[in-house]
């Protein structure tokens, strides 16, 4: 959309439509499951209620665990950016990458490689965003328990929905995604194939 040459304000779709007030151009897609995240329901307040400490105590399906290693586990993100978005998490409750042991660093790397291979094989991902936010100031939602994100990406996956609609479309229920990834995760305690 371009501004009119006469300097008039830019008209948004829906402005002037019967039954709509100016600025009410956006359509709404309801994602009520996100409200728990927005309100902080289940957000960790200490090691006793840290979700990353509690998840390993649950069965794999309930906890959305894809694979378990000796020092780390792979789990689907409950609020994914894209389908197949998972995290590699150490069992130990440590906040910083520098707190990991050499064994934990090695297994985290191995699990990340395996996650990429598995997600590519089942979904044809074209690329990945791999990373961790260290500390709440850097964007970590659960800053007290280190976790690394592995977010699959596809050419054109940033379409009008997240850009214009501020909404992500996930084509599969999390439990189905977990089952698919777990079934294709190679056997072995270090995530290697």
From TrEMBL:
The entry's substrate-binding residues are 77, 149
Q: Where is this region: Disordered?
A: 1-24
The record's annotation in InterPro entries points to:
AP-4-A_phosphorylase, FHIT, HIT-like, HIT-like_sf
Signal peptide residue numbers: none
Where are the catalytic residues?
A: 147 (tele-amp-histidine intermediate)
Domain HIT span(s) in chain numbering: 51-160
- The listed location of motif Histidine triad motif is 145-149
Against Pfam families, the record matches this protein to: HIT
Q: Does the keyword Methyltransferase apply?
A: no
Any GO MF annotation of the entry: nucleotide binding
Q: Which UniProt keywords apply?
A: Hydrolase, Nucleotide-binding
Q: Which SUPFAM superfamilies match?
A: HIT-like
Protein known as: Diadenosine tetraphosphate (Ap4A) hydrolase
């Amino acid at each position: 959309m371009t501004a009119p040459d006469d300097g008039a304000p830019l008209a948004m779709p829906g402005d002037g439509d019967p039954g709509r007030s100016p600025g009410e151009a956006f359509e709404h897609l309801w994602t009520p499951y996100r409200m728990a995240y927005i309100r902080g329901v289940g957000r960790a307040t200490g090691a006793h209620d840290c979700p990353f400490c509690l998840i390993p105590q649950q069965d794999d399906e309930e906890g959305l665990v894809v694979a378990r290693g000796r020092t780390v586990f792979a789990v689907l993100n409950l609020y994914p950016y894209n389908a197949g978005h998972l995290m590699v998490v150490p069992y130990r409750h440590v906040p910083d990458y520098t707190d990991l042991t050499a064994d934990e660093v090695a297994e985290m790397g191995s699990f990340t490689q395996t996650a990429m291979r598995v997600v590519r094989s089942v979904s044809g991902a074209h690329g990945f965003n791999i990373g961790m936010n260290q500390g709440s100031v850097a964007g970590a939602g659960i800053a007290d328990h280190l976790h690394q994100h592995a977010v699959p990406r596809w050419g054109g996956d940033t379409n009008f929905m997240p850009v214009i609609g501020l909404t992500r479309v996930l084509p599969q229920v999390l439990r189905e995604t977990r089952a698919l990834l777990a079934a294709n995760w190679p056997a072995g305690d270090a995530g290697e194939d």
